[in-house]
Design a protein that fits this description.
Length: 189
């Protein structure tokens, strides 16, 4: 009798997964990953977009603050070499902030370079301003010279919706999911 009890005790330990149970477990795992991975990609892209927007708004505030503090114009403009302005509306290759002491909107050798920034290309957020606005000039009274500006932050993979930083002539920036007039943001071009 002892032998039978001994065999039954170890027989229950030898049981494992059947092929059907294993396939069901794998199917559930694949479904969970299929739902989770796109959500994770969306979360990562959204966090990166928010980070780029917050950095840009911080630089707008910095430019405005320096202009008021020093009484001199300060210019924020797109740049590829991080030394001079680029004649373009694309800001995703980098941008600079400089003190424009002669008020010509062009960085001269004797004008102080206050700040440079090169957005992280790791996740690829495209930054493009409205046509005609290739630089932002802050005057000594804190106003932003020129027309209103909409700077659109787009995800090239289209995982998330675009957002915009809208700059008014008073120099204040706000973040929006639409253009200033309520129309949809465009990432083309």
């Amino acid at each position: 009798m002892q032998r039978i009890a001994y065999r039954n005790r170890f027989a229950s330990l030898a049981n494992g997964f059947t092929l059907i149970e294993l396939l069901i477990t794998l199917a559930v795992g694949i479904i969970v990953m299929g739902i989770g991975i796109p959500s994770l990609l969306s979360l990562v892209a959204s966090n990166h977009q928010s980070g780029e927007i917050n950095t840009f708004v911080r630089h707008l505030n910095l430019a405005r603050s320096y202009a008021v503090k020093t009484g001199l114009d300060h210019v924020l403009c797109p740049s590829t070499d991080l030394l001079s302005c680029r004649d373009a509306t694309r800001w995703d290759k980098g941008y600079i902030l400089f003190e424009d002491s002669n008020e010509n909107g062009v960085r001269e050798a004797d004008e102080a370079l206050v700040y440079t920034s090169r957005p992280s290309g790791k996740f690829g957020i495209d930054m493009q301003s409205t046509r005609g606005r290739k630089k932002i000039i802050y005057r000594a009274d804190g106003r932003s010279a020129g027309s209103n500006l909409t700077l659109t932050f787009c995800d090239p993979e289209s995982v998330i919706m675009p957002k915009a930083v809208i700059l008014s002539n008073t120099g204040r920036a706000r973040i929006s999911r639409t253009r200033w007039d309520g129309s949809a943001l465009s990432c083309g071009g």
